[in-house]
Amino acid sequence: MIQVNNLTKIYSNGTRGLDDVNVNIQDGEFICVIGLSGAGKSTFLRCLNRLNDATSGQILIDGDDIAFAQGAKLRTLRRRIGFIFQQFNLSTRLSALENVLAGRLGYHNRFVGALGLFPQADIDLAKGALERVGLADKFNVRVDQLSGGQQQRVAIARALAQQPKLILADEPMASLDPKLSGVIMGLLKSFNKDGISVVVNIHVLELATAYADRILGFNKGRLVFDGPPSALTESE
Ligand code: ADP
Ligand code: ADP
Asked: Mind telling me which NCBIfam families this protein's record contains (predicted)?
């Protein structure tokens, strides 16, 4: 379980990106985060994975606080959180398989080695993740030869191959043809069956209500809604 207590992020210019946010995320939940542009959705996800540092508060992962953890402790905990970006953030000159293997090292760790560096078990795991997202025939294709939708699926496989407890996705459909939204959401949702929690920032409300078990609504850095999609429509 992930427990967020009194999480506040004040940017250096004084903007309150997050204001005293409290939320618990259970294993295997599918959560969509909604809110207007500037509401704090991206700051929330980025703080959860320490791409941004919070100003104060706690982020407990099975009781371990990562909000201010450093060094090896931070790396270990972070390995349990996969992050999917709007713009994929892949190494476009490397193959799909190399990108997924790079995720085994941590997405922030620029992949410089050769496939031979990895144990066969890692390679099998990475191939399994690519198969899971429907890219079994693309292992050795360079990412810049793939379509946008295929690239995002490589990014999803990269997150999955980290064997995470939690996957965070920041507007993962925003750079794609809207027709692909259902494919991406369906894939993310399928990971819940393995007990992985998924938190997706999304600006299309219909997609959020169609897929989420639970919706978090942000406004001006504050968590202003936390409940099932049905409660959202009732409150309108
Ligand atoms: P959303 O993802 O909901 O669009 P963000 O989390 O990006 O919202 O932004 C929340 C607030 O924090 C906004 O007012 C935004 O302008 C501000 N903000 C985001 N990043 C920074 C930054 N690096 N420096 C200062 N303010 C920022
Ligand atoms: P989003 O997709 O979340 O709406 P934005 O376009 O608001 O992203 O922001 C793009 C980048 O600029 C992000 O890295 C964000 O952290 C940063 N940023 C956003 N608002 C501000 C701000 N007011 N001051 C400085 N940086 C900002």
From this structure: ABC_phnC
Which CA distances in Å does 21 have to 31, 43, 58, 73? 15, 11, 10, 24
State yes or no: pLDDT of 188 exceeds 70.
yes
Q: Using a 6 Å cutoff on CB, does residue 11 contact ligand 1?
A: yes
Single-letter residue type at 190: S
Angle (CA) 70 20 13, round 5°: 75
Q: Measured in angstroms, how far is the CA atom of residue 31 from the centroid of ligand 2?
A: 22
Give me 34's structure tokens.
């909604």
Residue carrying the six token digits 């104060």: 56
pLDDT for the residue 236: 52
Give residue for tokens 């999304």.
202
Q: Does the beta carbon of 42 lie inside 6 Å of ligand 2?
A: yes
| CB of 206 closer than 8 Å to CB of 119 | no
Return the residue matching tokens 């001006």. 220
Nearest CA to ligand 1 atom 18: 17
Q: Which pLDDT score, from 0 to 100, does residue 106 have? A: 58
Say if residues 169 and 176 touch (Cβ distance below 8 Å): no
Closest CA to 5 of 24, 26, 25, 28: 24
Å from CA of 161 to ligand 2 middle: 29
